[in-house]
Amino acid sequence: LLVGCAGAPGVVEGTAVVCMGEEEMDKIHADEILVVPATTASWTPIFNVIKAVVTDGGGYLTHALIVAREFGIPAVVGTQEGTKKIKTGQRIKVDGNLCRVWVIE
Asked: Which pTM does this prediction carry?
């Protein structure tokens, strides 16, 4: 269980893809869940294809949270250790309503 400090509404399950920087953006495919330290404006196009986003850092005014709300996808930001505890390929559940992330498999 990971707990964030803020979230964009919604609940989804899917496959996690951990990216440590923009240079790894090409690893992401449609309907996957992006797990990153943080996002910036250059990540915005990816929000068209992902199911949800989880970040290590951030708060109520962070880029990932604002963009996720605009795209209507769940987000949990400020988990502090999402990129450490979640591995690419794991099935996770993201609950933006409760600001929680669970590793399912």
From this structure: 0.96
